[in-house]
Amino acid sequence: MLLAEASLIAAVAAPVAAVPAAAGPAATPAAPIGEEAAARLTAGAQDRRVEVVGARTENTTLWANPDGTMSLETHAGPVRFRKGGDWVPVDTTLVRGADGSVGPKGHPRGLRLAGRTGAGGGDLVTLGTGDREVGLGWRGALPQPVLDGNKATYVDALPGTDLVVEATRTGFEQFLVVKDRAAAARAAGFSLPLRAKGLKVTKSAADTSLTFTDAATDKTVGKLPTPVMWDASRDERGRAATNRATVGLDIAPDAEGDGYTLAVSADRGFLADKDTRYPVTIDPAIYFGTNFDTTVVNGETADLSADVGLRVGREWQKDEARSFISFPRDAAVTGQDVLNAELNLYAVWSDSCEARSWEVWDTGTASSSTRWSSQPVWRTKAASSTATHGHTDCGPRWISEDITSVVKQWSGVDRTVDTLGLRATDEADYKSFKIFASSDAPANAPSILVTYETPADPVKDHVVYWNDVLQQTFREAGGAPGPLARAGAMMHGAVYDAANSAKCAEGATRCLGAPYLTKATASNGALPDINSAVDHAAFDVLRAVFPGVDFDDELSRARSTIPAAVTAEQRAAGTSVGQQAAAAMLGARQGDGAATTVAYTGSETPGYWRPTDSDPATTPGWGLVKPFALTSGSQARPAGPGGHTTMDGLLAGSAYAAQVNEVKDVGRAESTSRTADQTQAALFWANDLDGTYKPPGQLFEFAQILSRQQRLSVAANAKLFALVAFAMADAGIAAWDSKYLTDIDLWRPESAIRLDGDGNTATTADPNWQPLSHDRDGRHFSPAFPAFVSGHATFGGAWAKVMQQWFGTDSMTFTGTTEDPHALGVTRTFASFSSAAEENSVGRVWLGVHYRWDGTDGVASGVKVAERVATTKLTPNSAADWVEYEDLHNLGGCDALGKRLVAEHRWSGYQCVAVSPTDSPDHVLYVK
């Protein structure tokens, strides 16, 4: 049985059989995984974000993203609520019940309104359920209300006065709309019965607001902020409800029961003022819930937390305003590595369409007692914006702002509420005045979308899992690197075609790119499961290439981690396309020359390769093998060592002497010129011995390290590992072409230094010289094939170029590992891919088995191979014009997905287009 690195579920690993030391323990069958980990696995497999349904709250939604990150959207007010065990969306649209009563389609606090009532009156509005309930009554008959969205209008509930009730997200606002001056006297003072079941009601000494607290726990559960009144006039900017006055409010408990009398007294001077324009609206409001936001105005002493609008800046002919929004903290974000955070606000009004700067700050906690003179501390500015919408000529719409810096700070502090402050940059400029929808608004509550990294799951993606299986096969099979690299290209090429076929079945835009050999389809009509496709493509190729190895257990372990949500039909479809991809690869590689035996004994002529021990030349015909992307092994062939094409000219040159003498000095087993770091590097890169993952395996492992570091998705890994595998397979063919199929099959430094006969007076023989390279028994050796070019360097150059092309930069820091028995536990850190390839190249000189030009030209040859792979294989999708890809919830999510599709080389460009910014933050992602 072949044993993979540890299995997909490292957390439940346990030894079950003896294996070679490098392999690590085998694993028991997969244990059940948590919902969040399962969501991440499903998101990666299906290349879409997946909600963690069990993490839902009234305010928050948690998603797993295909790249392994998590995204948490937190609304300042509730967006759903529990009803009969199910989550129901908040919908404040009022509808009439069968009994004539009125209520919202969905309300988190059980809001209910009266229908037509008799002369005795009764409850006008009831809010709350069970043991905690507030009922606001009405004395007298009520007509059948006229319903319009979230508004119910009881026409002429008092003579000349309409009674209006508007459902808000967590409560209601009740208005008296006084139509004319004749009705003003009757509406100037009125009382309403208030019932507070299970609650205590207290009036603030500082203003006329009321607070509702749970009678049992003394916990605040609701509020009636300072009521206000306004007339029908508009300011010079055209905004309504700007001519305002506070409303008096008093409360007295009833003699018996849980009732109170609420006495409302309008400002009679305001009602009588000749400049007051009717109708006049008188507004008390009640809210239940823990959400909170508020506005403070310079000089204003009322509690403005009832407003459904958050004011920012100086209002026309009034004083400046600032607003505060509280967001409940979800414990999922605390302590996490925050990658991105986006604040979404709905702009309701602006005094101008001219761009005017406003700011988002991290502040202390606001409360109903917060006023201009007692604002919480303004700690850190998160963002500045000139986005301006809401005026007549630039109507209401959603605005998104990047607040990553502040949310990163929040994640390091454990608290229950985070607060953002909004203010104008120039608070003297009235054109900066804006209003945003608050958390109590019937729609479009503020929200924050946070994307963060999580600790690595014990569940590996299936592409990486099979790469582990491949590396373990390298350890057990051993042999020359060319055939191992070919096996890697066959497996990963089939895995890519299988994964691509699974994605293409979802639609043409979902393809990973051009197929390598085939775009398979499933006969059962189901959407193929990508993990099943990957598993069977890898399994079928590996058991064909390594017929003496049993991969059944590896397949079983892989299959055991496929999420339960994947249906049997989807698994079968995935299996089918995986098997088809494997069959296409195996068919394409039949007769590719890999099995051809070529006789080669070397030469006794100075300069030409001859065995350095009893081992014969290894894979001398490998340069003739059919490549995966090149047209032939000679396509990337360098000119020759130092540009020489004849052995006589090479041996006589000063460059040859310099290179021989360099390796003679620094590559000697007991060299005093080679530094300790150079010795470590030489052994770190060696991996020549059987039982290690060999040079291709080490570079595959580096690709894994970078994949984890950059959080690549399953789809991205399918493509990246195929490109790496193709480049390394062709690098091996190209290197062996240069080693065996040119006019200069250059001898190893060991032969050049020990033997006298090169005819160059600048070199002297040392028959006792030995390279640093040695086996587990301490026997010094040189690999059994010609020196020029270095296979290690060609592999490294090809790998580095693929990684540069994939990530769009050479500068990426990573820490690599090794399995060479003389450097176990050693890690080395590189600041770029090219620096790793360069050290790999020169490390062969320090090891005493290559000349410097073997490495230099090898790297260059590998780069050419990788360039050919990139331009001809697995190319991105393309379209003549923009193609719709997906509808996304907001700009941040759209932008993140677009960037990922480009980064994964699935499409070359993207754009995000707002669907209807006046209605939602939704965007459509287009690709090209």
Helix amount, in percent? 25-40%
Name the overall outline: elongated
Strand tally = 39
Q: State the major sheet.
A: 13 strands, antiparallel
Distance between the termini: 46 Å
* Beta-strand share of residues: 15-25%
Instruction: Work out the radius of gyration.
Output: 37 Å
Query: In terms of structural class, how would the helical and strand content be classed?
Result: alpha+beta
Give the low-pLDDT segments.
1-31
Oligomeric description of these chains: single chain
Supply the number of helical segments. 19
Integer average pLDDT: 90
Which helices and strands appear, and what pairs or packs with what?
Blueprint: H1 35-46, E1 50-51, E2 60-64, E3 70-75, E4 80-83, E5 86-89, E6 91-96, E7 102-106, E8 112-113, E9 122-129, E10 132-138, E11 146-148, E12 151-158, E13 161-167, E14 171-178, H2 181-187, E15 189-197, E16 199-203, E17 210-214, E18 220-224, E19 228-230, E20 244-246, E21 248-253, E22 259-265, H3 268-272, E23 280-283, E24 285-288, E25 293-297, E26 309-314, E27 320-328, E28 337-350, E29 358-363, E30 378-385, E31 397-402, H4 404-411, E32 417-424, E33 434-437, E34 447-453, H5 462-477, H6 481-504, H7 530-545, H8 552-560, H9 568-588, H10 647-652, H11 654-666, H12 676-684, H13 694-709, H14 714-740, H15 749-754, H16 791-807, E35 814-816, E36 828-830, H17 833-846, H18 852-872, E37 883-888, H19 891-903, E38 910-914, E39 923-927
Antiparallel strand pairs: 1-2, 2-3, 3-34, 4-5, 6-7, 8-9, 9-10, 10-15, 11-12, 12-13, 13-14, 14-23, 14-24, 15-22, 16-17, 17-18, 18-24, 19-20, 19-23, 21-22, 25-27, 26-27, 26-33, 27-32, 28-31, 28-33, 28-34, 29-30, 29-32, 35-36, 37-39, 38-39
